Amino acid sequence: MIxxxxxxxxxxxxxxxxxxxxxxxxxxxGEVVELAGTYRDPELLAYHRPxxxxxxxxxxxxxxxxxxxDYPGAAIDTLDADLYEHWIEAVSPPSTETGR
Length: 100
Description:
Layout: E1 7-10, E2 29-39, H1 42-45, E3 55-63, H2 64-67, E4 78-84, E5 88-90
Antiparallel strand pairs: 1-2, 1-5, 2-3, 3-4
């Protein structure tokens, strides 16, 4: 389980067929806001499969400027997206150690 406040990156997988993850978010980093629940996998349900095992669905917040570098709006503008756990990975904080 990924805790609220964790920085995550959306995986940039290219899969054929149904994908519930917006292409414009692939490779982008955001922050988990909350666990939205656990549901059957819609990528499997789209092909009449049972959608099991169930997947956790997270609400992830992105700064608009991190999604679109030329975004003309305010720096505080955000975008929320609901993303399944198999599409996100925790981002390690930068190391503060030197000399390695």
